[in-house]
Design brief:
- The protein is about 25% helix and about 15% strand.
- A 10-stranded mixed sheet has the order 14-13-12-11-7-10-9-8-15-16. A 6-stranded parallel sheet has the order 3-2-1-4-5-6, sandwiched between helices.
- Strand 4, helix 5 and strand 5 form a beta-alpha-beta unit.
- It has a domain of about 160 residues: Dihydrodipicolinate Reductase, domain 2, CATH 3.30.360.
- By secondary structure, the chain is of the alpha/beta class.
- It starts with 6 loop residues before the first helix and ends in a 16-residue tail after the last helix.
- It contains 13 helices and 16 strands.
- Helix 5 packs parallel to helix 6, helix 6 runs antiparallel to helix 12 and helix 10 crosses helix 12.
């Protein structure tokens, strides 16, 4: 399918059976999204059921008046165990599909939740939007910057809601921290730092092709657990060409498959684009920036191990905004110290939140905001602490914040949390009810994607916020998209 194929041509060719990658839709796909009341059942499907997908299944299936109609995965070996657990927990069994397009053609499906590898996020979301389905998609929203803008366009054109999985947006304490910053309590924020200090082990090197019977494999060499061997018998139930999707055609390799795809550029974005997008989003949110920085540089490398991993395990990225504000991001996958200040008498309650009058701990996954009057450290669970003066005198904490501050109704009838917010927004039909609409999610996701281009080219790059491209750098701009396989093109015109 040509990148310039319009939707009208897309639907026409689909009906003629000429475009294998197309979702078969009528010309009224925009009307497929049902108007749903508070008591109507919302029928959902989860696309990608391993790893993070399990969280999607559990979160959605537990909600009132939400029914899991399908679970979808190209690895059909996963279905029996997932279905057994699902029936035990919820008392019914959803249908299974390996091809998401069959689910998108089901008019009873209202929404899909996408937990595929990164390289599938955009096309899976766009196909869903074209079929009139609301979308929840994992972070980063896309594998490259071009795809993110196409997702925004698809959501707007087909009038569907599209929520990106930046769960911090639905944590009340994090919302309160952002309000505290935006109210000027720290003075002018001159730097936001994102921290991704997540130990990662050696993943080894393995040959292409199926594993032999009895051969053992671990996703990393320090793990005590072994994967089910990816033998010829196992792979006979894996639709590998569909797994590759938009990515280049390559032979199967166990180290580019489940989970370890994160560390290979064709499918993932390294930890800067894996865990990192969460903290990039909080950093940008705290800075209250809607535009992109004017330039980015990024450096680091893959240290200590010799493996098939392509992405860095140590990376520092620095962005500068037009007003001089700095966003700094540090990814450290080896041994490192936390950052921030440890104060005594830490008291974290059963919900993982710091209780009133208690103190915060240093950050390994989180953010630090530096202002002209003070600074704030916040972890990935929304626990935060402020400090003031030359002696870093402790100030207000998350335990001191106003419990009534809940601008996005995160304690609402959807059950709270990010998935609850998504379901409630579907019922209201209002994009503004989403805590992380695709436009916000795209801008935050683009930051680590820009950083990775700068890292791979080894040079500082200037960013044009209007075009979402680099200034006068054709080499860098080529890396903001990719060459797609014919059946799996993310189109210029959605």
């Amino acid at each position: 399918m040509s990148k310039n194929l319009s939707r009208r041509e897309f639907v026409k060719k689909s009906s003629l059976g000429l475009t294998a990658g197309a979702v078969l839709m009528s010309s009224t796909a925009k009307s497929y999204a049902r108007i749903l009341g508070s008591n109507d059942t919302i029928n959902v499907a989860v696309i990608g059921i391993r790893g993070r997908g399990g969280g999607h299944i559990d979160s959605l299936a537990r909600m009132k008046n939400v029914r899991m109609k399908y679970i979808v995965d190209v690895d059909e070996n996963l279905f029996p165990e997932v279905l057994k657990e699902f029936e035990s927990n919820f008392g019914y069994v959803p249908g299974t599909e390996w091809d998401m397009r069959n689910v998108y053609n089901d008019k009873d499906i209202d929404a899909v939740s996408i937990a595929t590898p990164n390289h599938w996020h955009a096309l899976a979301s766009i196909w869903a939007a074209q079929a009139g389905k609301h979308v929840y998609v994992e972070k980063p929203s896309t594998h490259n910057v071009f795809e993110g803008r196409k997702m925004v366009e698809a959501a707007r054109k087909y009038n569907v809601l599209m929520q990106v999985g930046f769960q911090n947006r639905s944590i009340q304490n994090t919302n309160r921290a952002m309000k505290y910053i935006h109210d000027g309590n720290l003075g002018k924020i001159y730097m936001a730092r994102g921290l991704c200090f997540k130990p990662r082990a050696d993943i080894g090197i393995y040959p292409d092709g199926p594993m032999k019977e009895g051969e053992k494999y671990r996703t990393n060499l320090e793990s005590d657990s072994y994967e089910t061997p990816y033998t010829e018998k196992y792979l006979s139930k894996v639709h590998y060409d569909m797994w590759l999707g938009p990515a280049p055609k390559r032979p199967f390799n166990r180290n580019r498959f489940h989970y370890n795809w994160h560390w290979h550029w064709d499918y993932g974005n390294g930890d800067t684009g894996n865990q990192g997008p969460h903290q990039f989003d909080v950093a940008r949110w705290g800075l209250n920036k809607k535009e992109y920085p004017k330039k980015v540089s990024s450096f680091g490398g893959y240290y200590a191990y010799k493996s098939s991993q392509e992405t860095p395990n140590v990376q520092t990225s620095i962005f500068e905004y037009e007003d001089g504000t700095i966003l700094e991001f540090a990814t450290r996958g080896l041994f490192t110290n936390p950052e921030g200040i440890l104060l005594p008498d830490i008291n974290i309650n059963s919900s993982g939140q710091i209780s009133a009058n208690s103190k915060a701990k240093p950050v390994t996954i989180g953010n630090i905001f530096l202002g002209t009057e003070g600074w704030l450290q916040i972890d990935s669970g929304g626990n935060w602490q402020t400090f003031f003066g030359r002696n870093n005198e402790p100030g207000p904490t998350s335990g001191d914040s106003d419990d009534s501050y809940d601008p996005m109704n995160l304690k609402g009838t959807g059950g709270g949390g990010h998935f609850g917010n998504f379901i409630e927004a579907i019922r209201s039909g209002k994009r503004e009810d989403l805590t992380c609409d695709i436009e916000e999610g795209h801008i935050s996701s683009a930051l680590p994607l820009f950083a990775n281009v700068a890292y791979r080219l080894g040079k500082e790059l200037k960013i044009n916020s209007e075009t979402e491209k680099f200034v006068n750098d054709d080499e860098a701009n080529k890396m903001l998209t990719r060459k797609y396989r014919d059946e799996f093109v993310v189109p210029e015109k959605v």
